[in-house]
Amino acid sequence: MPAILEVQNLVKKYGDFLAVKGISFDIKEGEIFSLLGPNGAGKTTTISMLSTLYTPTSGDATIGGYSITKQPMAVKQLIGVVPQELALYEDLTARENLIFWGQMYGLSGKALTSRVDEVLEQIGLTDKAKNKVKTYSGGMKRRVNIGVGLLHKPRLLFMDEPTVGIDPQSRRAILDTVKDLNRQGMTVLYTTHYMEEAQELSDRVGIIDHGELIAIGTQKELTQQVGETETLILHIGENDDSAALAKSLDGVKDVLEAIASDHEVSVIAHVAEDVLAAVVTKANERGIKIRSIDIREPNLEAVFLNLTGRALRD
Amino acid sequence: MKKLFLIGLKDLRLMFRDRAALVFMLLAPFLLTIGMGFVTGRFSGSSSGLSDIPVVIVNLDNEQLGNALADVFASQELAELMEPTESSDPEAARQLIDDDEAAAAVIIPEGFTRSIIPAEETAFNESSVQPEPVKIEVYANPSRPTSSGVVKAIVDEFVSRVEEGRTSGMTSIVQLIQAGLLDPQSAEREASALFQDVEQTENTSITLKTNTEGAEAVEFDILAYMAPGMALLFLMYTVSYGGRSILAERSQGTLPRLLVSPTSTLQVLGGKVLGIFFMGVAQVGILILASTILFGVKWGDSLGLAVLILATVLGATGWGLLITAIARTPGQVASLGTATMLIFGILGGSFIDLDQMPALVQTLSKITPNAWSLDGFTTLALGGTLPNLREPITALVIMGTLLFSISVVLFSRNGIVQK
């Protein structure tokens, strides 16, 4: 598959602060690519540059062969954007919103009407189309927010954390919509800080932290980067010293690495059960109260932890 | 261009769905107008809120033009509106005003006609054209601002037409002399003849419009002054509300969304400006229509009224944009907009007749769309037509264009979204 998006050394600087530090990647036509990273990692800034809203400090990207800096209007025709925050006119109905935004994308007449009907069907709001958006639940608003991005059938859809702050049912519906759109041939760039969403949706994942793309590949490729390891997570008391416990585990047989975070110690080993007894003993020796223990198989969370020394939610 | 209209119409639709805004834009000025109507007795039965305005005419000129002005006040057409009395003593006339016996005294100084029409024995040359005619004094009663305002408007209209005729007539004769087509002796005769015609003929430019338009055109309705005063006061709220929507769209994310659609920054900004303009026109238009239907207010020449409304909203839109370009948040626009609305309301004559204001305030009033527009509405109410609105309309259009240009520079310097 040819690349629909090619990003070359994209940089965004605000004064002395480097929000995006020269990232490069590409997205192939028809794939779902997730940018996974914690809040403030630079995901939204990257999408804002790619959607031509922000001007890059340096670097460039092409979408469908058009440069985001030199041919922004051509780029805008190819992309759809679902912003992180709701961007709708709450005093207009869902239908009125879709009609207005469709007109902004050059749709008119019967083509506009039938496309609005299709999108309302797709987001499951045909029955409530005549209600003002301000009367909708958060999840319904999110669906209209997504619907606006789909009106002109974009080749590449940017979705910036579309499930933030909504109930599980609406979240499920949105993830299913993304998969459905992809099945219909739409390429999707999806940003999230939820590892599970990236795992469920993505063909490939880019892990971003502090404005840097620190890893990229399929989930298998990424988990292989941290080796065939498992992570033993000890949840400890609020007053216990996680850093001291992690340090005491250095050199313990079969422990590859021990990483401390707030009220947690993550112990990486080839087989978690092999180190469990030793870890519990060390905790007891230090008088540390273990509240619970999790064992995690290799996943993107472990990859992020391995690469940054921090959990995704930190 | 189509997208500009779509964005503008969307903003207009949103305005009509904002009940709180509608209260301020339509209900408040309407209720205030009604209140003012009751205060002035406009609703107490007479066809006009003003009648039999007592005015003292002191004609010290006693020549053609002085007599013509005195005749205007004594004319049949103004018989219901004016109740003139004559006096030969300016001090006595002023005393009558100070004693609240009359609304105003019109003191026509000696030599008024001669300052405009050269005497027959005077040799005509370029120096015959005086830079300014002798001034007519209108000594106004501050406790009767509206009545004295009407008197002043009639005198202003008369003087304006005299001045127009004087300038064009003299200029033509001077040009004829310079071209060698007229010798100075003939010029003297021609000039006198010209001004004799001017004074006597109904269709000349110095005869007051009332002579040609009939009585209905000069029947001054107090609501035709008050209703626009209130509408213009709240128009400043409307344009700042419209400006606020630019910043509100930025914070609610719809402005960035517009900018990532195939719509240029210029189209987005132009659409927002058009939206403000539409809102202003809708507001003033509805208020005027409602006043016409419900109270039978006579606004005067329809074409002049339409053009004046458009020019007024253009001037006000310029201020709305400037406030938006200076402010950082919708809240700041609201505060600045309200302050501007009140200051312009006072400066521009929405509350108090500008003629009662000190000279400095009258000068400052020229920065407000309210003052220019009220001037235009008064002219229309007194029977003026589109050509008589040249000055206020030009001022409003220049105001709007200038402020729009400054705002665009500020917007492009600060960016309408963070880049």
Please indicate the count of domains of chain B: 2
**CATH first level of the largest domain in chain A:** Alpha Beta
The CATH homologous superfamily of the largest domain in chain A: P-loop containing nucleotide triphosphate hydrolases
Contiguous uncertain segments of 5+ residues of chain B: 198-218
Q: Count all strands of chain A and give the number.
A: 14
Low-confidence stretches of chain A: none
User: What is the averaged pLDDT score of chain A?
Assistant: 89
Please report which band the strand proportion of chain B falls in: under 5%, 5-15%, 15-25%, 25-35%, 35-45% or over 45%.
5-15%
Topology pattern of chain A, helix = H, strand = E: EEEHEEHEHHHEHEHEEHEHEEHEH
Write out the strand line-up for the largest beta sheet of chain A, numbering strands in chain order. 6-7-8-3-9-10
Q: Please estimate the helix content of chain B.
A: 55-70%
Work out the helix count of chain A.
Answer: 11
Distance between the termini of chain B: 25 Å
Radius of gyration of chain A: 22 Å
> What's the Cα radius of gyration of chain B?
25 Å
What is the CATH topology classification name of the largest domain in chain A?
Answer: Rossmann fold
Q: Based on CA inertia axes, which overall geometry of chain B fits?
A: elongated
**What percent strand of chain A?**
25-35%
Structural class call of chain A reads alpha/beta
Which shape of chain A, going by the Cα principal axes? elongated
Write the layout of secondary structure elements.
The complex is a heterodimer of chains A (314) and B (419).
Chain A: E1 3-14, E2 17-28, E3 32-36, H1 43-50, E4 58-63, E5 66-67, H2 72-78, E6 79-82, H3 94-104, H4 109-122, H5 138-150, E7 156-160, H6 168-183, E8 187-192, H7 195-201, E9 204-209, E10 212-217, H8 219-225, E11 230-236, H9 242-248, E12 255-261, E13 264-269, H10 272-285, E14 290-296, H11 300-308
Parallel strand pairs in A: 3-8, 3-9, 6-7, 7-8
Antiparallel strand pairs in A: 1-2, 1-4, 4-5, 9-10, 11-13, 11-14, 12-13
Helix pairs in contact in A: 3-4, 5-6
Chain B: H1 2-16, H2 19-39, E1 53-59, H3 64-74, E2 82-87, H4 90-98, E3 104-108, E4 137-140, H5 145-178, H6 184-200, H7 210-213, H8 215-218, H9 223-252, H10 254-260, H11 265-295, H12 302-326, H13 330-347, H14 359-364, H15 369-381, H16 390-414
Parallel strand pairs in B: 1-2, 1-3
Antiparallel strand pairs in B: 3-4
Helix pairs in contact in B: 1-11, 2-9, 2-11, 5-6, 9-11, 9-12, 9-13, 9-15, 11-12, 12-13, 12-15, 12-16, 15-16
